[in-house]
Specification:
Blueprint lengths: L10 E5 L9 H14 L6 E5 L2 H11 L4 E5 L16 H7 L3 E4 L2 H7 L3 H13 L3 E6 L3 H5 L3 H12 L9 E5 L13 H19 L7 E5 L4 H8 L6 E4 L6 H11 L1
The chain binds phosphoenolpyruvate.
The site of phosphoenolpyruvate has 13 residues, from strand 8.
C-alpha cells in the first residue's frame, strides 16, 4: 500500500451478484489470460466476487495469477446456528481474500443497517480478509441535496475503529446508478470522494489517505478512464460489466 502523498494502488473488483454457473468460469480464465498476455507487473489489483458456490473452484484456477477471488457478503459470527449464512472464516477457507459488505442490495433486500455492516466488517478483519464497505445515497436523498450527509453518516457508522488501509476498501455506490446506466457527473463523483477522503483522514489519521475509495455504479469500458482520472477515485466496483471478460478487461485497462 502506498503512503501519504502518493495515490493508493488501484483496485478493480467485479461483483457478479446472483449470476454465474460453472460455465461462467470460462470468463474468469479469459480475464486472467488477458492480463497475463499484457505481461509485466500489474499496476492494478483485480478481484472477482462470484456467488459463494464458485469461490473454491475459482481460487484454485486463479492461484498464481493476477486475479484474486472475493465474496459478496458474510455473517458476522465465525460459525453456529445461522442456516443459509456463511462466515468470513468459511469464505477464507474456500479461498476468498476479500468480502463485500453493506452493498445497497443487501441493505434494501435484507434490511442491513450500518451497525450490522460494521459487525460484518469487523468479522472480515477477524478472519484476516479485506472488507469492501459499500455506501451510497438513494435517488431521493440526492434530489433532496443530502448526498454528502448520508454518505458521511454511513461511513461513520459502518466503519469500525480498527479500519486501516490494509484491511478496508470503501466503495461509493450511488444506489440510483447501480445497474441503471446512469452515473453522477464527474464533479459530483469528485465532491463525494473528496468528502469521504476527508472523513477517513479525520478519523484514521495519515493512513486514511491510503484507504482505497472505489466508485461503483454503471462503470463500463467507455466511462472507466474518465472516472479513474478523478482525484480520490482509486478503482471501481463493477457489477454488470464484470460478467463478460472483454468488458471487465476494458475497465481494468483504464485503471492500469
Ligand atoms: C454493483 O452492484 O456493485 C454495481 C456497481 O453494479 P453495476 O456496475 O451493474 O451498476
Amino acid at each position: 500500500m502506498t503512503g501519504e502523498g502518493t495515490r493508493p494502488r488501484p483496485l478493480v473488483a467485479g461483483n457478479w451478484k446472483m449470476n454465474g454457473l460453472r460455465t461462467g468460469i470460462a470468463e474468469v480464465r479469459a480475464v486472467s489470460a488477458g492480463l497475463a498476455a499484457q505481461g509485466g507487473p500489474a499496476a492494478v489489483d483485480v478481484l472477482i466476487c462470484p456467488p459463494a458456490t464458485l469461490i473454491m473452484v475459482m481460487a484454485e484456477i486463479l492461484k498464481g495469477t493476477q486475479v484474486s477471488v472475493g465474496a459478496q457478503d458474510c455473517h458476522w459470527a465465525p460459525s453456529g446456528a445461522h442456516t443459509g449464512d456463511v462466515s468470513p472464516e468459511i469464505l477464507a477457507d474456500a479461498g476468498a481474500t476479500a468480502i463485500i459488505v453493506g452493498h445497497s442490495e443487501r441493505r434494501a433486500d435484507h434490511g442491513e443497517t450500518d451497525s450490522m455492516v460494521r459487525l460484518k466488517q469487523e468479522a472480515v478483519h477477524r478472519a484476516g480478509l479485506t472488507a469492501i464497505v459499500c455506501i451510497g445515497e438513494t435517488k431521493g436523498q440526492r434530489l433532496a441535496g443530502q448526498t454528502i450527509d448520508v454518505v458521511v453518516r454511513q461511513l461513520q457508522s459502518s466503519l469500525s475503529a480498527g479500519t486501516t488501509s490494509a484491511n478496508t476498501v470503501v466503495a461509493y455506490e450511488p444506489v440510483w446508478a447501480i445497474g441503471t446506466g446512469l452515473t453522477p457527473t464527474l464533479d459530483d463523483v469528485a465532491d463525494v470522494h473528496s468528502a469521504i477522503r476527508g472523513q477517513l483522514v479525520d478519523r484514521f489519521g495519515p493512513d486514511g489517505r491510503s484507504v482505497r475509495i472505489l466508485y461503483g455504479g454503471s462503470v463500463k469500458p467507455q466511462n472507466a478512464k474518465e472516472l479513474m482520472s478523478i482525484d480520490n477515485v482509486n478503482g471501481a466496483l463493477v457489477g454488470g460489466a464484470s460478467l463478460k471478460a472483454a468488458d471487465f478487461l476494458g475497465i481494468v485497462d483504464a485503471y492500469a
